[in-house]
Design a protein that fits this description.
Layout: H1 14-27, H2 40-47, H3 51-63, E1 67-70, E2 74-77, H4 82-93, E3 96-97, H5 108-120, H6 123-129, H7 139-149, E4 161-164, H8 166-178, E5 184-187, H9 193-201, E6 205-208, E7 211-212, E8 215-216, H10 218-228, E9 232-235, H11 249-262, E10 265-269, E11 291-296, E12 308-312, H12 314-328, H13 334-345, H14 347-369, E13 383-387, H15 394-403, E14 406-407, E15 409-410, E16 424-428, H16 435-454
Parallel strand pairs: 3-14, 5-6, 5-9, 9-10, 10-11
Antiparallel strand pairs: 1-2, 4-12, 7-8, 11-12, 13-16, 15-16
Helix pairs in contact: 1-3, 2-3, 7-13, 8-9, 8-12, 10-11, 14-16
Length: 456
């Protein structure tokens, strides 16, 4: 959302002028119900005001019932009443969503129906699903999870694996175990928003480490670890979101050497890497005693399943299990049972193959639409990263596209700490319900990009 800087000579206080502009955008539908407002520091920099001024503007919106703040997550446009929700639904029907990152529906409902039908014929197993489970998960579920993680090069040891309610749940358990308020967490300058929200809620300082086209630079990581005297590192070496970067083996080995030397604790995100038919070995396999491998099915099939697997050295796993116990006592076993049946029967691989096919078809549409436009993409990954040529501004482009009925993500959504925010947008190919709608949205984006390039 792009706003004009408040008039310093006007009698209206700056915070109120900003609130009024935002309120108008909400009322006219430029900002949709549920949409996240820009982070305080990003909007403050854009408008050349203090973060305190932005905070007061957002507070004014809350008092008007137009926005609501979520601790550690940000401020969002509020759904005010039924009529507003109906209006939002109508608006959403005419809006092409190239912003949200969600798995494309394939045959998950059929797979669930088949698994439930077979489970219904096993009353003893059903009875076990209603009992307390070990904090790390039932043995059969851990065995299935360990087998799943071998796709990332792990040894498949069930005693190193625990079941979680998705990768976000695993990450929360890990951070609560190894981090304390005030600690510094190193990551890419653009990183997973869910991790950033967790870090804020735990009062951690997050610092972006310099990257290139492959990801984090080993020398930069070494300097940052020494400068900030930290032991915490979070990264996505394979199919990084939003840049699509993947590290080669040499880069992974160089990073592993730094991790060993600096005794860092690595939290590695391989959620998107699950889409690959043959992903490279996880970085964590090179430093297994200092790593937490975070995986789930959320981006390749059935996010509502809420099943993830965490691999770590046994002593660390016991500590994380203790955190899980204090949080929710155990992972509810029914969903891991479904996931186990999908893995055992081959349904999981079938669903991932269907997802991969859908992504390939949508990537083909994107390559045609963006012919001649400098973009970055990767096979089996439903995102396109588009750096903008100067003097183009990502927020202005996103606002123009929103007015044309197309939603995209700017880098403010992923920005870490005080790291510079690149002028770029991420296009998600998986949220549009049909390829026809996707093609229309991509064409709108391509035309806007060519128009911006012509102004140089």
């Amino acid at each position: 959302m792009h706003l004009p800087p408040p008039d310093s000579s006007a009698k209206t206080p700056r915070y109120l002028a900003i609130a009024q502009e935002l309120a108008q955008a909400i009322e006219t539908g430029q900002l949709a119900p549920g949409e996240k407002l820009p982070p305080h520091r990003v909007l403050a920099r854009q408008l050349a005001v203090t973060t305190g001024t932005v905070s007061r503007a957002y507070a004014a919106l809350e008092r008007q019932g137009l926005a609501s703040a979520r601790v550690g997550d940000g401020t969002f446009v509020r759904n005010r009443d039924t009529s507003a929700e109906d209006a939002a639904t109508t608006a959403a029907a005419s809006t092409i969503d190239l912003a949200h990152n969600i798995a494309i529906p394939t045959d998950e409902a059929g797979a669930l129906q088949r698994a439930m039908a077979t489970l219904a014929q096993a009353p003893e197993q059903l009875a076990r699903m209603l009992k307390y489970q070990p904090e790390a998960g039932a043995t059969a579920h851990r065995v299935a999870g360990a087998r799943w993680l071998t796709r990332f090069g792990t040894a498949g040891l069930a005693e190193r694996v625990m079941v979680t309610h998705g990768a976000q749940h695993a990450l929360a358990g890990v951070l609560r175990t190894i981090a304390r308020p005030g600690d510094t967490l190193l990551t890419e300058p653009l990183s997973y928003p869910g991790m950033l929200a967790l870090a804020r809620s735990l009062r951690l300082q997050v610092v972006g480490v310099e990257t290139d086209a492959q990801g984090i630079l080993p020398d930069a990581l070494d300097r940052a670890a020494q400068t900030f005297q930290t032991k915490l590192l979070f990264c996505a070496p394979t199919l990084h979101n939003p840049t699509t970067a993947t590290m080669d083996v040499a880069r992974r080995e160089a990073l592993a050497a730094v991790i060993r030397r600096r005794r860092l604790l690595l939290m590695e995100d391989v959620v998107h890497a699950a889409a690959l038919s043959g992903p490279p070995p996880a970085l964590s396999t090179m430093v297994p005693e200092q790593s937490f491998l975070l995986s789930s099915f959320s981006k390749v099939m059935a996010p509502g399943l809420r099943v993830g697997y965490l691999e770590a050295a046994a002593p660390w796993l016991d500590k994380v299990a203790s955190s899980i116990r204090t949080d929710c006592w155990m992972v509810a076993p029914l969903m891991p049972e479904i996931a186990t049946r999908w893995l055992d029967s081959g349904e999981a691989e079938h669903l991932i193959a269907l997802q991969r096919q859908q992504v390939a078809e949508r990537l083909a549409l994107a390559r045609r639409a963006f012919s001649g436009v400098p973009v970055r993409w990767a096979d089996d990954f439903p995102h396109v990263w588009i750096p903008l040529p100067p003097p183009a501004r990502a927020e202005l482009l996103a606002a123009e596209l929103r007015r044309s009925g197309v939603l995209v993500r700017t880098m403010a959504h992923f920005a870490v700490g005080r790291s510079p925010v690149p002028e770029a947008v991420r296009i998600s190919l998986n949220a549009a319900p049909s390829r026809e709608q996707l093609a229309s949205g991509l064409q709108t984006v391509a035309e806007a990009l060519r128009k911006a390039a012509a102004k140089r």
